[in-house]
Design a protein that fits this description.
Helices cover 34% and strands 23% of the residues. It is of the alpha+beta class. Strand 8 and strand 9 form a beta hairpin.
Length: 271
């Protein structure tokens, strides 16, 4: 059994394993937590295995789980949704890049209206487009990709104000993907492979590509700064981004391998 307690448990460092998830002591969920849980649960469903989920005991958290649509993926009994806490982009399940393109006509006006800043909205969709394309194209996941976005003011969440986004799949993961290229096949340290993934032209194929994460970091800094976290294989990298400056990076090994790749992006409110 995995017990996820408190605020932002997965973003804070917890990892998923086992066939029982206890969410009863949750007090908050970020988009990163939401997409990671969704990808993990969907993997069990696709492989026709049973995942037991104990829902949040806090009524407010339970309502938020329904608002994000995570409750449907976890197959929890329907609760009471709160229209005041609708996500900027509710939990969305994608299997092909063009499915995201089809959603843009609907999502763009609503996001643009709620965010209120064209450059921030444009940067957000640039980030999401690259991350979704990477996940769907390279992740080779049999469960697809999940995306969720929230716009926090900080009043309720007590989190830094800004746009928080999560993108996750349950595929092969970045380290294994990069080892598909003979140039990186002998690298055993997953931390080193996540570090390399940020460089131009680094890819798990022989094609002339590998700019996706570079562009993600550039777009995430447009608003004035923020944070990214990439968790995949047995490692994660956490990065603070600022315009015109190299990201401050910190890497760590994980006690067990993560499922697929999960990415957290926080884009701070412009000063």
């Amino acid at each position: 059994m995995v017990e996820l307690r408190g605020r932002e448990p997965l973003l804070g460092g917890a990892t998923l394993f086992g066939a029982t998830l206890d969410l009863s002591d949750l007090t908050w969920l970020t988009p990163f937590d939401t997409v990671s849980l969704a990808a993990y649960a969907m993997r069990f469903s696709v492989r026709e295995r049973s995942l037991d989920v104990i829902g949040p005991s806090d009524d407010r958290v339970r309502a938020y789980v329904d608002n994000t649509l995570l409750g449907e993926v976890l197959e929890l009994p329907s609760g009471k949704r709160s229209p005041d806490e609708d996500p900027l982009v509710p939990l969305t399940h994608l299997r092909r890049p063009d499915e995201w393109d089809d959603r843009l006509e609907e999502l763009w006006p609503a996001v643009r209206r709620r965010v209120g800043n064209y450059e921030v909205s444009r940067a957000l969709f640039d980030v999401l487009g690259e991350l979704i394309d990477n996940a769907v194209t390279h992740g080779r996941s049999d469960v697809g990709t999940f995306v969720c976005v929230q716009h926090y003011t900080g009043r309720t969440s007590q989190l830094p104000p800004g746009i928080w986004a999560g993108v996750a799949d349950a595929g092969v993961g970045i380290p294994r993907h990069l080892r598909g290229n003979s140039e990186y096949a002998a690298i055993e340290d997953d931390q080193e492979l996540i570090r390399l993934a940020r460089r131009p032209w680094v890819t798990g194929t022989r094609d002339r590509r590998g700019w996706g994460l570079v562009e993600v970091f550039e777009a995430a800094a447009v608003t004035g700064g923020g944070e990214l976290l990439i968790r995949s294989g047995r490692a994660e990298g956490r990065f603070l981004v600022r315009p015109g400056r190299p990201p401050w990076a910190r890497y760590r090994a994980l006690p067990r391998a993560a499922v697929g790749t999960s990415v957290h992006v926080r884009m701070d409110e412009p000063a």
